[in-house]
Amino acid sequence: MEKTWRWFGKNDKISLADLRQIGVEGIVTALHDIPNGEVWTRERIHELRTYIESYGMRWSVVESLPVSESIKYGGEDRDQLIDNYIESLRNLAAEGVKTVCYNFMPVLDWARTELDHPNPDGTSNLYFSYAEFAYFDIYLVGRKGAREEWAGFRIPGIDRPRDILAEVEELRRDMTPEKEHRLVENIIVKTQGFVSGNIREDDEHPLELFRELLALYDGVTKEKLQENLRYFLSEIMPVCEECGINMCVHPDDPPFPVLGLPRIVTNAEDIRWFLNAVDNPHNGLTFCAGSLSAGAANDVVAMAREFAPRTSFVHLRSCHIFENGDFTEASHLGGRADIVELVRIFESANPSLPMRVDHGKTMLGDEGRGYNAGYSFHGRMFAMGQVQGVMAAVDRELGIK
Ligand code: DNO
Question: Cα(40)–Cα(208) distance, rounded to whole angstroms?
Fold first, then answer.
């Protein structure tokens, strides 16, 4: 696979010169400063592409060309927004950037409750706690019906019953305004600001904004969201075919419904549905082993075998699920995803697939450097070294040069 790295543009604290030193061949990035829904002009794409190339790498993948909320919930202006999307795709293709990652998650691009959960070895990781998430939902967002939903909640794939409401009340006993502030920051600001454009780091009232965004999805069921994805893909596919663009949807992270919002890319059945709904080789998948391994019922290796032919981009990362269902991000050589086997599968399927290591521990001075949540330098570099070693061994095994 092509070794790529997610780089957040010229303001990223990690430079392209640094990345060349650690074996990076291709860059995964986006025009992060362009508001969702606006056209990416050819000039802007050209400028960033040539900047990347001046460092001896290529712009391999766009992550992400964001899909506006209105396209997802089916707003009145969705056709105009799809036209803009198509224009951006044409401009990207004209500049030779032809792999485009996006997601179809309503409102929240990804969710974690803790960004620096300590590990016994002194490093820290991202973490998802159901109880903290439910606290946020019930007491901070104050979503109507949230308490009732959590009362009957069963964690998908986990047999052990769990009284989330009792845990929420226990958390409440020790809650402080600082802890509440941190939860809001973790769930809707620090994990979102740099990727989604819905909420920015400097928004003064993120919770109010968040409630307005949630309200856009009142009455939007799983079926409706699927229909809107089908509509979007059917509209853009002719242009993707014409220009050779591979669209690759990112699975939902975590892969289960949150905050009453539907989720449609969570497991093998969902993925089969969307690949068949618009059965075109340009309609493909970002195989994010991390997101999929956070689903207790997902067999990640079996999914890789099944979906490798429709995978255009690979994210290597692995989750560990605790007995109670909470999850954390494991080492890239541990956890549920079995990255060694995944490398075998994807190297055999297509050795030129772009792959990036996803997330990394915070370690060796990463803390306090202001990196985006999950996107440390040393932690990701360590993971990249591990994955490069796995790839070299697998390639030898398979006779791939
Ligand atoms: C988080 C990322 C996501 C991903 C988008 C793709 O670390 O995996 O933000 O880039 O969902 O559209």
Answer: 29
